[in-house]
Write a structure and sequence with these properties.
By secondary structure, the chain is α+β, with helices and mostly antiparallel strands. It is built from 14 helices and seven strands. The longest helix has 30 residues.
Length: 346
């Protein structure tokens, strides 16, 4: 039997080491928002309870002091039933932990930054050639807690991280309460009268949307081989990385996510998807976003479906052209890749 307390401590220490190196990579506003979420998780404060700013500031000061103390230390190996494992060997580690109802992830996230977490295993399934691992309560995590992660042909879906992400979006919207895409999505849920039920309902309703996006990215990974990952690493923290991620998101979503949402015909999900449609994706595929705006009035899905079908082949093809440039030029192809993507807007 694995010593869960010891394993949790080790994984959390590795998470802290990542945060010591990269926690302040974000701009100040985003950093503070993430720290609020991290504080809430660390202290197990329910999502709907108000936070005391003075307590948060004191806690942040302590966390930053801890980061300074451990910065530069190596990652620790994980002890499981008397054996020790490299923290990046997530597939092997999960095989060992599955019988104990646990799930672990150790891979690279945005900007090629390591990402670890340890959680309670909710369920596993296989679809489209991928192993999908859904977790619930998290025992260890870092400052950056994305709701989903694709790594080594494994799709990790983090339900607790989804709750925190969705609540932070709602909390942020509450400051302005604008009649925007996010407000339209949130208006379908009883946040005012029963915020606990609202966040549970929206999490369950959007679980499949997140899975579909990760399946789309996984299918692209198979088609593009390792080249897309190599480009992300080579062009990390540049405009090119942002452009590449936008193209991949468009290709993946036109392949899986949007066909699913348009077949579902559930207004809150479509509003929520376009509420997260990044500025870069709006620049590259403005016609799709404008079609969504038209749909809000007409509720006619025909144009949206046509653009998604068109986008599926188009953005996949743009991805192929990008890889051809990268294969021939490596890092020196950066400007050509930027020019290709920026000129591909439709």
């Amino acid at each position: 039997m694995t010593d869960l307390e010891k394993l949790t401590t080790t994984v959390q220490k590795n998470c802290d080491l990542v945060d010591a190196d990269h926690g302040q990579d974000y701009g100040l506003c985003i950093y503070l928002l993430k720290m609020r979420d991290f504080y809430r998780w660390h202290n197990r404060i329910p999502l709907h309870e108000d936070l005391i700013n003075e307590d948060i500031h004191q806690w942040i000061a302590g966390i930053e002091e801890h980061w300074e103390e451990i910065e530069g230390e190596p990652f620790s190996r994980l002890a499981i039933n008397g054996d020790y494992y490299n923290p990046f060997h997530a597939r092997v580690i999960n095989q060992k932990l599955e019988t104990e109802g646990l799930v672990y992830s150790g891979g690279l996230s945005y900007g090629a930054v390591p990402l670890f977490f340890l959680a309670k295993l909710d369920k596993k399934e296989n679809r489209s050639g991928f192993e999908i691992i859904i977790s619930s309560d998290e025992y260890a995590r870092g400052l950056f807690g994305p709701p989903a992660l694709f790594h080594d042909n494994l799709i990790f879906i983090r339900k607790e991280a989804m709750r925190y992400f969705l609540w932070s979006r709602y909390d942020e919207w509450c400051f302005s309460k604008r009649d925007n895409d996010l407000g339209k999505a949130m208006s379908f849920y009883p946040f005012k009268d029963n915020p606990v039920k609202a966040i549970e309902d929206i999490t369950e309703n959007e679980l499949e949307t997140v899975i579909q996006h990760e399946i789309g990215e996984g299918l692209l990974e198979k088609e593009y081989d390792h080249f897309w990952r190599d480009m992300i690493v080579d062009f990390v923290h540049t405009k090119t990385e942002i452009l590449l991620r936008a193209v991949r998101d468009l290709a993946a979503d036109c392949m899986t996510t949007l066909p699913y949402l348009l077949s579902k015909k559930f207004d809150p999900s479509l509003h929520l998807y376009f509420a997260g449609f990044s500025d870069m994706r709006k620049e590259l595929y403005p016609s799709l976003y404008q079609s969504y705006k038209s749909w809000q009035k007409s509720k006619d899905y025909v144009e949206l479906k046509d653009l998604v079908s068109q986008g599926r082949e188009y953005w996949f093809g743009i991805g192929k052209q990008i890889i051809d440039l990268y294969k021939s030029g490596g890092k020196s192809s950066q400007q050509d890749i930027d020019d290709l993507i920026e000129g591909a807007a439709i």
